[in-house]
User: Which sequence fits this backbone?
């Protein structure tokens, strides 16, 4: 739903980085969008393509890496992998999980010409 | 379009409190840009050796033919607070890494960046960026938070789905604090909605200063909009700033406004599963307020199950149940507000 805001923020960041590096065109973007980030990669692709029109990143390839969610279980005191928030602990079935990773939304690298 | 507040032709609009005065936009964001220019530095250096980074973690590669290394990780510490169900607030530091962009020339040994490679095609470079998409919003939110802390203002970001009773709860709260000259302490309200000033009008009727932000097609408030609104509204020093976010349980979760805490509001008519369906919001909130409990006799809702589901997402979330209409539970909510405000006044 807020993928358009994210796409706009991404393009601002891309333009700033491209200008600082003296690049004329951006050919590839690598993003990290965690499995627990509540961002739909399909909607984000659509929004980025639209937001990039007419700018240096128009037509750039978008690579989206989706790191898995990680959490700490307060019941069995171990770090576990989770696919959704509200999931039960895969090792003890406990419900008290503190999310530790997999909610990132970042621009990892970009390829420029 | 005005880049800071969107005022003018844009979709986003922060209400102008002084319609008769010459139109003026305070642009505190610009100052922030100027200021952040110092910190936002790029490191750019070129490599004589052709190499490929594709399979390596950023920043960890070795340059066999070059005699320099570049590792730009800076760790620094943040304090943050969380409150346990028993009311004890803990504060613990955690670190973040920041990396700065550095670039690598690929496929040619020429030191000139824009020269063509051996194939005749323009040289392609890969910039390692490693920046959060919301870095700009987070920077403005951090600035807001510093301002709120300096003025000892307790800022609460009220989030919920549409129709949960946020505005009614606020109106009843302001009546108890006293909205106008009889207020026990300074109060201000920022109202976020896609359209209309209806909610700000309801708040102003209590005597409390309020400003409406219309987000147009936007589904959430962001830190820039709040900063612009605060420039016009004035800071309620030693008091409370209530930010009523756009009714939406998805997007506002990701956008930090600089608030001390998010308070998520769920009415009993919404059923027990909201925390599981919209987990991001419950994970980000410090307090769950269950509203409209006067309606429980007419419904099948199991409130204990709603609370159980919320704690499954966020084991440390606090819970209050109330009816703004009958007043049941309002005393506990007022007590929570006074306690949170006292906590803000007692600490830097």
Assistant:
């Amino acid at each position: 739903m807020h993928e358009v805001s994210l796409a706009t923020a991404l393009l601002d960041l891309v333009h700033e980085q491209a200008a600082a590096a003296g690049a004329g065109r951006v050919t590839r973007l690598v993003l990290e969008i965690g499995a627990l980030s509540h961002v739909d990669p399909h909607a984000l692709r659509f929004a980025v393509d639209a937001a990039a029109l007419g700018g240096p990143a128009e037509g750039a390839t978008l690579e989206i890496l989706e790191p898995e969610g990680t959490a700490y279980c307060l019941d069995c005191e171990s770090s576990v992998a989770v696919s959704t928030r509200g999931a039960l602990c895969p090792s003890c079935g406990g419900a008290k999980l503190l999310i530790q990773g997999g909610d990132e939304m970042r621009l990892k690298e970009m390829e420029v010409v | 379009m005005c880049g800071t507040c969107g005022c003018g032709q844009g979709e986003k609009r922060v209400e102008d409190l002084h319609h008769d005065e010459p139109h003026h936009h305070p642009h505190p964001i610009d100052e922030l840009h100027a200021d952040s220019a110092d910190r936002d530095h790029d490191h750019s250096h070129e490599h004589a050796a052709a190499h490929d980074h594709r399979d390596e973690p950023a920043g960890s590669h070795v340059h066999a033919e070059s005699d320099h290394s570049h590792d730009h990780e800076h760790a620094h510490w943040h304090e943050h607070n969380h409150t346990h169900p028993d009311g004890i607030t803990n504060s613990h530091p955690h670190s973040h890494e920041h990396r700065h962009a550095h670039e690598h020339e690929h496929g040619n040994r020429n030191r000139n960046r824009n020269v063509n490679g051996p194939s005749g095609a323009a040289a392609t470079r890969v910039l390692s960026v490693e920046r959060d998409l919301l870095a700009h919003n987070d920077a403005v939110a951090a600035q807001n938070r510093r301002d709120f802390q300096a003025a000892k203002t307790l800022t609460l970001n009220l989030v919920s789905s549409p129709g949960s009773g946020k505005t009614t709860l606020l109106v009843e709260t302001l009546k108890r604090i006293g909205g106008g000259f009889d207020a026990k302490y300074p109060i201000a309200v920022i109202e976020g909605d896609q359209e209309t000033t209806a909610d700000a009008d309801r708040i102003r009727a209590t005597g409390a200063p309020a400003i409406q932000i219309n987000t147009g097609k936007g589904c959430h408030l962001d830190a820039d909009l709040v900063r612009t609104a605060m420039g016009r509204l004035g800071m309620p020093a030693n008091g409370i700033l209530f930010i009523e976010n756009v009714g939406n349980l998805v997007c506002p979760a990701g956008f930090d406004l600089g608030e001390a805490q998010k308070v998520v509001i769920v009415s009993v008519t919404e059923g027990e599963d909201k925390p599981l369906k919209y987990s991001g919001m419950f994970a980000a909130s410090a307090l769950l307020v269950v509203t409209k409990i006067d309606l429980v006799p007419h419904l099948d809702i199991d409130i204990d199950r709603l609370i159980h589901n919320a704690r499954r997402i966020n084991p440390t979330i606090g819970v209050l149940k109330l009816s703004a209409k009958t007043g049941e539970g309002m005393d506990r909510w007022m007590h929570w507000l006074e306690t949170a405000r006292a906590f803000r006044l007692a600490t830097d």
